[in-house]
Amino acid sequence: MKSTAAYAVAGFFVLACLVCASTTLAGVSAVWPEYAAVLVLSAAVVLLLRAPGDPPSVRSTALMTASGPVAAALVFAVVPVPLTGSLQTWPLGMPLVIYTFLCVRGRTLAAWLGLALTMSVAIGWAVVTGQGVAYGLSFSLINIAPLLMATFFAFTIRPLAAAIFELRKQSTVRIASEAAAAAALEERDARLASLDALARPLLQRIADGPDPTDEEILACRLLEAELRDSLRARGLIEPNLARAARSARARGVEVVLLDDRAAAALEVDARDRIVAAAADSLDAAEAGSVTVRLLPPGRTAAATVLLDDLGDGAQRIEYDDNGRIRS
Predict the structure, then answer these.
(1) Predicted model pTM
(2) CA distance 183 to 110
(3) CA dihedral sign of residues 207, 213, 214, 216
């Protein structure tokens, strides 16, 4: 109902209403009600396509239901007696398009009520103009057949459509689950490959002997710290910061990296500023400890860098959500 094809059909419907109104003006007492009826039916068909929900809301349904009798009342108020042509009863047939799709969208009773009210307008016009109930029924009763077919069609197609939509939903959920599982496997394989490349040479060296040298022991400690960072500070792992942290640890600085923001990641620009500032702090540190932490969401600060050079005390630097130093 929201496809381009549906809107194209709606455009042809409006054009058909306009043609019907323009070609049946012979003998009418006023022209504007004919085109007002076109506007009413045009608005109803647009609402039919755009109304959310299935079935549509009560308000939308009431407006679409009323479009038929309103359009019929406008036209029958100005047509001549007797009619100069059968097409002058066009407000009886055109609302059937709206009522047919109301059935498809699950508002069958409203569609029948709209048709009954539209026929009542035609029959009332026939009675008021002295042409009798039978005459009004003669050209309005035929409109029951298309709506009757639409009703049977709706009762047949709606359960099938509901089953199709449920299957589509289940398929979407299954595909999403499979994609998540595949992504998790890819992430695991990537991390295993990285761990294998980083740790295997040192583990093999330890296994083969002899005892590791001081340089190799330092390399093991640095590797252990980097692996710990990859688990505890995923949001901070950037080549620049990893290099600075490794260099600082090699100089004897205790480095702690923490990411407590979980899934509430920072904007890329803000994170880049914080990472760059933290790397500069690590490059400048010669002793003591440096703790870089991304804080949980909702705090006044987004990140902190705590510097303790074992001298005059610790210095705490806070960064806001934009990656700027807080005053």
Answers:
(1) 0.54
(2) 49
(3) negative
